[in-house]
Amino acid sequence: MALPIRILTAVPICDGHDSAINTINLEFIRHGIEVVYLGFHRYVSDIVRAAIQEDVAAIGISSYNGGHIDFFADVVSKLQKKGANDVAVFGGGGGTITHDDARQMKRKGVDEIFFAGTSLTEMAEYVKKHYGKKKKRRIRSMPDLMLARKLTELEEAAGKKTKHRTSNTEHRISKVIGFTGPGGAGKTTLIDELVLRFLQRDSKTRIAVLSHDPSVIGEGALLGDRATMINSQDERVFMRSMATRGQAGGLSPATESCLALLAHSGFDYVIIETVGTGQEALPFRNKLVDQTVLVMNPDYGARLQLQKIVMLDVADIVVVNKTDLERAKAALSEIEQRLTQNKRKQEIVATVAKRHRDPGVDELFELITAKENNR
Amino acid sequence: MSKLGAVVEAVEKHASFVLEQVKRARSDEKFAQAVTERWNKVKAEIPIAKAPTGLPLPRLALPEIDEPGEIARYLFGDGLPGEFPYLNGAYREIYLEPLREIETGSYGNRKSPNGDSHNGAGRVSRAKIPERPARPPLQEEPTRLFSGLMLAEDTNKRFHFLSAHQRSKRLSTAFDGPTLYGIDSDADGVFGKIGEGGVAVDTVEDMVRLYDGFELGAPNFSASMTISGPAPIIMAMYIAAAKRRFGAKVVPNLRGTIQADIFKEVQAQNETIFPTEASLRFLCDMIEWTTANMPRWYPVSISGYHIGEAGSTPVQQAAYTLSNGFAYAEMLSARGVPIDQFAPRLSFFLDCGLDVEYIALARVSRKIWAIGMRDVFGANARGQMFKLHTQTSGRSLIAAEFKNNLTRTAAELMLAYMNATNSCHSNSADEPFTTPSEEWIRLAAHGQAILLEESGIFKHTMNMLSGSPGMKAVERAVEKAILDEFREIESLGGVLAAVENRYQRSQIQNAAHRYEQQIYDGTRPIVGLNRYRNGADEMPEIELVRTPRAKQKLQVERLKKFKKKNAEKSKRVLDKLGAVVDRGENCFPALLEAVEVCSLGQITGRLQEIVGRFRPMV
């Protein structure tokens, strides 16, 4: 089965009009397209970096706040500068982009502008028709570009079920940390807050983040983690969003091989985030990661539910996030008690990841960076 | 339970109170007599005035009822205009022509004040009454047109053009993207956006230029500023600019509104720059300061407009707006700001589109607000009034065959006036393409004048279109739906918790998606788009308002000069501001100091270092 088309969508800087793009994203997904959504109020540099790292075929930009001629042209030229001139750029802006503007924008390298009144299906069909064929890319010595392309090849190989050589975990350069937990526990926010601390502590640290969103084989998916990660939009962070493409358990068929590649690519830390998992999930097997962090929400229900969460047996660190909620105190003591049954050293950390400079996240950061020395 | 749950209970309790009054009026003779007497007195006091055709009409229309139960239902359940629960209007007479000539006599056909019995419509004893009625109507036109383009001096020129023919100067300011996001014009990546879609304001000097030539402290001047994320900083700049021009004594006289509504930004409009809790704190700092020092200023305009424009249903719009308002009231009360200091300074802003709910949406909102504020928060009468600005729906305007937009806006204006909005903005027909050009702005403004001044629909009689059986049916359905939404939000832990769980956002997004689907499958007819389309899809030639590159460069240069001039001082005041924020004190006085020497972006940047940046929700 052919792999889904991957595109990136975003709304320009100083523009919060995301109503149109939200609707269009849903329509793209319905047509089997994987959409990496970068969100609104996005800088050109963030859009271009994300497009390269995610190895998308095209960038769709929805602009309603003016300045589109400059903005679109800037995206095209920055792509070229980074050697990614095969990434197409298209977009729209209801009635704010005139036909005259569109002609200028096309002259500057934009593929297509959709005007008000274009049906959603028309747009999705356009994307399928024009961005479905893989373009040949002459890879120059741009590290992000090469890495991104190799990750795509690994995903393609996993899709074809061809056995790919996985590297030996023993000789990894990077420390690999796995984050898992139920949906809505705040994993993405927590990771983004940790990234901020990594970047601030050492001006040379480089991080890779591999995040997962669920999808069914051959169908589209919305990969939206990047949109909420404000600190990870940085030259020293390589992010890749993966759809699970039908695999159960919280990861994608290509996770293992992609991870092996990332762990040898010069990053100090590689962070994997699973999709929101259920009670029985054990996503990180075979020493896939060096350290596992289970992120929980205090609202897990009755105490009895804790007995059923298998990850509580194996996680190195259990984070109880959102401890500003009323139930947090009870949750913390119940989880602590549950962990003592395991009779092994497990850490428990209480965080409020949404809070800037949260001391709980600081504590988690120390735990992660301290254990690094044990490797 | 948050206060929202208590509001639901209060509205239900009020409904049963009204029913009890109805029953009592039907069983208790004394009460029935008192109710009937009040009714007759009200009717007797209604003056009769003549339309230009000579037709005598009462200044207030009331239902044709004489049964005490029904009278009680009307007086307690709906209330006269300007009376609790304000269903028919927060004030009396808002659109009525000044009363120069009246027919003495009354609307009621029982006893007139001077004792003789007559048919109210028939008497013709003419009397001049003094120039000033109790509340001078139309001293302030309800017209308030949103405007902002290019640089401060360009918008200033537009302001003078717009207000030239107005007795009162009511300016409404739109800011450009960088300003709305608290970013300076010289920031990386914003060139091209400077002065687009609104005016570029980076410094207090821009603010001085923006309102040049207007008497900021005059009783007939008011400024409205549509900005929320960096609102406290922009508010401080406005005050600083006013002080530079008129001295410190002008501050208590400043009149106007700043939008500052953080909740709706997080729920719908996405122009937030600090994390929600920090934004709310800065907002409350500002409200606390302005309500104490600027008693004529409205420091927050609780806005459903952007919720509606982002695609919500009308009921969602009203429910989220009201619940956001109650949440602000709860936060300010918790801070210890006296209810009667801030409640009268809360104002509202709703969208008005073409869906049937808009026949009564604002009416019902006014009633729920009044009951909640009186019975849950203990606000006085001025604090119970839902003071409303309405804007016709931008989303309902389309590019195809855009002149139809004039008709759409006219119909929406009609609905807005039927809801007794206190002020109104009518959109220009060319809005789907661009910042409105002068030709279409004039037509939009004239639409209001035609309805209010030229036509006799609203100027002779209050309640002219209120209370039809259809309107009542919509009121009941809308009220029930709003209360259901309140219950849902309450079950999620109240407004803030629901916001953090992105409840309102996802509800709005779902509604938006459905709306689009309905347009594409034709179940939602849009003339010129999915119905009666003429095939020619070319956009009409219209005058585009774009900011020339030279102007954008000028703005950047001015800003750089300002920064250079104030380099040393700015560092000191920013440190002071940072310390104040860190200590958890009210930061508004420190902001007032900071804006004298710092740019918007410098202040935003420092605050973000301390409280963090907003993390977008998808």
Which key features would you list for this structure?
heterodimer, A: 375 residues, alpha/beta, Rossmann fold, 2 domains, seven-stranded parallel β-sheet, 13 helices, globular, B: 618 residues, five-stranded parallel β-sheet, four-stranded parallel β-sheet, 23 helices, 13 strands, 8% strand
State the end-to-end distance of chain A. Answer: 40 Å
Indicate the structural class of chain B: alpha/beta
**CATH fold label of the largest domain in chain A:** Rossmann fold
Proper CATH architecture of the largest domain in chain A: 3-Layer(aba) Sandwich
Strand order of the largest sheet of chain A: 9-7-10-6-11-12-13
Q: Can you count the beta strands of chain A?
A: 13
Number of helices of chain A: 13
Greatest interface = A-B, 47 and 55 residues
Fraction of residues in helix of chain A: 25-40%
- Say which CATH homologous superfamily of the largest domain in chain A is assigned: P-loop containing nucleotide triphosphate hydrolases
Shape of chain B: globular
Task: Kindly report the oligomeric state of this protein.
Answer: heterodimer
